[in-house]
Design brief:
globular, two-stranded antiparallel ribbon, 6-stranded mixed beta sheet, 31% strand, Rossmann fold
């Protein structure tokens, strides 16, 4: 966050995308500074049962094409800043690369993406967080017992979001290979902060 502080203090209005759990305080933080913010909880919408089908072998398949048809529908080169938070660690693997590809498309050249990755020591019970920006270089984290909404609960049991995988540095570099630069910062709580420039 400290690396982003200069961008957040920009006098020019920024166009910001937050794809984590919706935070009213983040929306307020950006709008009070004259920036435009778009918020879309991609992990929540990725659990839509309509995205799931079975292949010929009976294996569960997530329809990434349908997911992108319904989500992240923004013009190319639209955003100056994207907060991805810890989305790739919790999202279904079939959606991670397509989502990163779409984010690349909707970001302006030189735009910055912030993403967090767990280290191997985090463990499978690592909590899923909602992040609140409380200052230009400070974050407040709230662990979520992220449940599906009541309509979805009627169609199936609710569940917590669980850590799907742990990316090593090489996997992260590969995931963002189309971006112009990537910086790693080791943080507390077994988290790596990664800043990626389009």
């Amino acid at each position: 966050m400290a690396e982003l502080a200069r961008s957040l203090k920009s006098e020019d209005p920024l166009c910001v995308l937050d794809v984590g759990a919706t935070s009213a305080s983040n929306i307020r933080f950006f709008t009070e500074r004259g920036h435009r913010i778009y918020s879309q909880d991609l992990l929540e919408v990725s659990t839509d049962p309509a995205l799931i089908s079975r292949d010929e072998q009976g294996q569960t398949v997530i329809d990434s094409k349908k997911f992108l048809e319904d989500n992240l529908n923004y013009p190319n080169s639209h955003f100056d800043l994207v907060f991805c938070w810890n989305l790739p660690d919790y999202m279904e693997e079939a959606l991670v690369k397509p989502v990163v590809g779409r984010l690349w498309s909707v970001m302006k050249p030189g735009a910055i993406l912030l993403v967090f990755f767990h280290t191997r020591e985090a463990g499978p019970d690592a909590p899923y967080y909602r992040y609140h920006i409380t200052g230009t270089d400070l974050l407040e984290m709230h662990a979520l017992n992220a449940r599906r909404d009541h309509k979805k609960e009627r169609s199936g049991p609710s569940k917590n979001f669980t850590l799907q995988r742990v990316f090593n540095n090489r996997h992260i570099e590969n995931l963002f290979r189309d971006f112009s630069s990537i910086k790693f910062f080791l943080s507390r709580d077994n988290i790596r902060e990664v800043l990626v420039v389009r």
